[in-house]
């Protein structure tokens, strides 16, 4: 009997044991084994480091301790880790064989072994150990009154060596604290490249000591000092992240040309004189910081030696700020209009036997390569830099797809076949407000294309891009997170980790945990809603964000002129995000109902309809003291109207004709209000 | 008939006219007149500046435009203001006669005149104009679909010239973005002094080029670079704020002495030799960065010339970073224990005829005065610097009160009577978690003391102090705001502006509006609660914060050793604030019920009791998956138990004896759980 009791108890414990599938790990590791038993966290929990790492790991472990303690409120005794082998008998032992090199191709693997009384992280480099600590933080479990780690063994390494995020700091300047907290987010998601888009039409963002005009005239006073840049580089290094700076040339040149109009391509023809004698001349055009979004003509003059002189001096000042081996020179979206209209440039093309503007741009690009090489940098550029004369050392950044009228990622295949290394961003444009699945299932390794092993190896990885035409420091985190975490998984985890349901489930917890790094993707939504509601109760507004999504692609800011860079981005659309929660849940309910019209399944639908009818009433009430609620009302009314109709139909009380019902549904398919769309439209349509 | 209709309409408009008392202005201006009519905001709204200001006003107006546009979503056409008289026919005309001088005694007055088609701000200096813009932002009104300013005239100027906030960046380092957003908060509240407590036992926070050891050994890597400090000084200047830096000496010296133990006062006696011959000697003590809170012995040696040499060199490096005319040298809480135990220092006292340690400290202080004077700075120090030999130029910072065993603000009276200028901080210690009223009604001008006009004039104003033993970047804003806004009103508005109900009502809106400056006092509460709840629904937790307040005074961190500076401050107490909302409402309900036991008044009480019973159930449920909820349960149980009892008593169904009920109430008077207290205890007690 006693024996049986013990067995039963063991059974209970084992029953409470977490299953591998329940872990909220992201990116999912290459190998996970969960066994019975737990490691209990107590205030005596300490960390010890051995091997040959540098001080990077001390900071990493100290941050790990603070995060774990802040989550659990355990009051760890250990405050700081400052040297090797400080606490030889510590419960967590970390061994790193060597100092990790920040850059590509470093060994980032780690082995995490959790036993019931001891945890070890073994890694070749400290970069792997930092990844192991993030996994350990993710595997934390709790019951009602304590925290623990499940006994388990994890072996892990990345699939791709380039797991990047680009942030555009030109269109809307993003202060240092925004960059820092997102670097922390990247590190938590085991991403290792931060591509800093520092120059575009809307502003130059790097302090320049030898060319101060760039800041004085082309930054609105919003820029990073060189010291700040160095500090960010150090901050990134401490988190195992490489920074790739970008100065976008020769197109997107409004800011540079605002400071240096003399190296612009635009020609102004002057006419004067008398009726008898015409005098014609040319003058230098003037430029201004661009306030709209779009593709603009200001372009550097590739025929002007001064262009190269200034760029060379700029690189001489900027390159030393970034110890990494790569420098991005942009090169995208140069339509060459000002080149075509400039006789001097046309002459130059002829003289150098450059047949197209594309060849002219390659000529330009190739002048830049040695300027960068001098500083030990390889040139990287958007896919437009790819032409036959481009040096094989350049990295081609593949970005275009159907939006730009070409096959998605075609340039990636072209590049690797021609011998170039490449990084994929097409499909990872998170500023476009597409659902997380579209990014999650976007694999840098093209399907159905025959690539040799060598060619495949040239696909370095991928990079999420956060363009900031419509993104401010208040909203950037909610545009980046949590979707970037799903991209991180695509780039780190095995190719066959593609279970969307699992990803969604894990993403919810991951998103919540990212808050501890200071990311504001959850908290700032309430700030926006409080402003819209004029400090009334935000509950109905918040509920309505669960069925609305910001307009996708480039539809929110038609022609790039509805919003200037100083326009308000504190609106309802700015509080909404892709993957509206109730839209997903409603779609599930619709599918269940269509599969089986049980009373339970019907009840799920009617609950949604009743909620939406009531939401509309709530919003109308709210709007009586909140002008910013007004633009939403046409939407909530349509959703309420269609809900009313469906309720009648479901109860067989409706005298509505199918065409009338269809009309009500179609009225929900609108993009004319508040810059959002009703994300339940397609599910409603299924019901007809 | 037509005439009558028009009259009626006019009547409606007039009826909607806002009354002066309904305006959410804070600090309340010296003179407010509201007339009929409104100025309607449209996208054509523009600003024009005339007079003789410098560029400070351009930045101020541009920020004003963005804030107003972000609130209203109107899409103003005007993006930036960059020069004088840019839009002569603009609807808002600002005229500043001169450039404001950052410092004391500047003319900060302004006249704001809102007519139905034109707004003017007239100010002597641009500092006054900036204040006028803040008032204009506060006076914004709306109906259901538009925003407007009521026709009104406001004339305004500050009562005190020193309206300050101190932030302790030593105990918990507060990054640049924390400082910046709080400078914005100060400017919005028309405060003009930021006192930056940069050095204490727990860390040295200023980059030092000539004494790098201070950073290398005594900062944990957490410090402001000199460039960052200069940028903050500029940022403050742009908002009309003077920065007063503090290096706290000779006590609170752990950090300095960690780097320079040779100038410490502690003596270590060495004994050695043989049994026949004793050898005695002394050695330099070693010091470490302090991790606890409290008053510690490490103190600079005032008898050592090297002390003055190092301090002089430090001032030579630090003073030029701060253009303001004042430098705070601390001087507080030096108990002199190490001085008493050091024979060399005792000898020094005798030699210089210094009878007490207090006199010795004055000797020390007076050595510092010329070091600062050399850089054009006046010395300021906490009230302990006040002795008979102190130079009359020094400013005495009055801070002690009953907590320290002295009469509140006595030193202020002493100082002005002795001819010193003084600033009051006693009663403004916002870190102590006292209710807003206690600070609001704390007037720097002492009541019942006979002071001459000259003596009164020496009372410069007051300063809120945010010590950070228990305050991190996550929580600092909720400890500062909104209570600091009430202190701002005390320091700016007329002496007789003391209506607590009015202050509370206005404070609610002011607090909400402060969010637009990036302040996190509201949004970060949800972050903490999400962590405590383990990402479950935070509603019950949030409700429970409405009856709980953090322990007051120094009771949360007994003896300063329960929390180290690296301990978690992500707990329930960190989500709670003084002035718990439901505690105030409940107290009102109790008072009403006691005044008149109507069914309505009884119903108000029972609603609270039922809510609290249900809260307890909700918290128990939440706790099954949230260990951090456990410490709260004993409190919610007590509140639930007493609520049950009162419900029975109110229904005359109780067989409880008075003593038993009293016991239940007294059980709510506990400080033993979760570092909070039940803020409804005193109201419950009234009910017995």
Key features?
homodimer, alpha/beta, Chitobiase, domain 2, TIM Barrel, 3 domains, 8-stranded parallel β-barrel, 7-stranded mixed β-sheet, 20 strands, globular, disordered N terminus
Structure, described:
Two copies of one chain form a homodimer. Chain A has 688 residues and is α/β, with parallel strands linked by helices. Chain A folds into three domains: 138 residues, Chitobiase/beta-hexosaminidase domain 2-like (Chitobiase, domain 2); 350 residues, TIM Barrel, CATH 3.20.20.80; 163 residues, no CATH class. Helices cover 40% and strands 17% of the residues of chain A. Chain A is built from 25 helices and 20 strands. In chain A, strands 8-9-11-14-15-16-17-18 form an eight-stranded parallel barrel, surrounded by five helices. In chain A, strands 1, 2, 3, 4, 5, 6 and 7 form a seven-stranded mixed sheet that branches. In chain A, helix 12 links the parallel strand 16 and strand 17. In chain A, helix 23 packs antiparallel against helix 24. The termini of chain A are far apart. The N terminus of chain A is likely disordered.
Chain oligomer state = homodimer
Choose one word for the global shape of chain A.
globular
In what order do the strands lie side by side in the largest sheet of chain A? Answer: 8-9-11-14-15-16-17-18
Determine and state the CATH class of the largest domain in chain A. Answer: Alpha Beta
How is the secondary structure organized here?
The structure is a homodimer of 688-residue chains.
Chain A: H1 2-16, E1 31-40, E2 47-51, H2 56-72, E3 92-98, E4 110-114, E5 119-125, H3 126-138, E6 141-142, E7 147-156, E8 162-168, H4 176-188, E9 193-200, E10 203-204, H5 213-218, H6 226-238, E11 242-249, H7 254-259, E12 267-273, E13 278-284, H8 305-318, E14 326-330, H9 337-340, H10 343-351, H11 357-373, E15 378-382, E16 395-398, H12 410-417, E17 421-424, H13 436-440, H14 453-457, E18 459-466, H15 476-480, H16 483-492, H17 500-514, H18 523-533, H19 539-545, E19 548-550, H20 572-575, H21 581-595, H22 599-623, H23 633-650, H24 658-667, E20 676-678, H25 681-687
Parallel strand pairs in A: 2-3, 3-5, 8-9, 8-18, 9-11, 11-14, 14-15, 15-16, 16-17, 17-18
Antiparallel strand pairs in A: 1-7, 4-5, 4-7, 6-7, 9-10, 12-13, 19-20
Helix pairs in contact in A: 2-3, 4-6, 8-11, 19-22, 21-22, 21-25, 22-23, 23-24
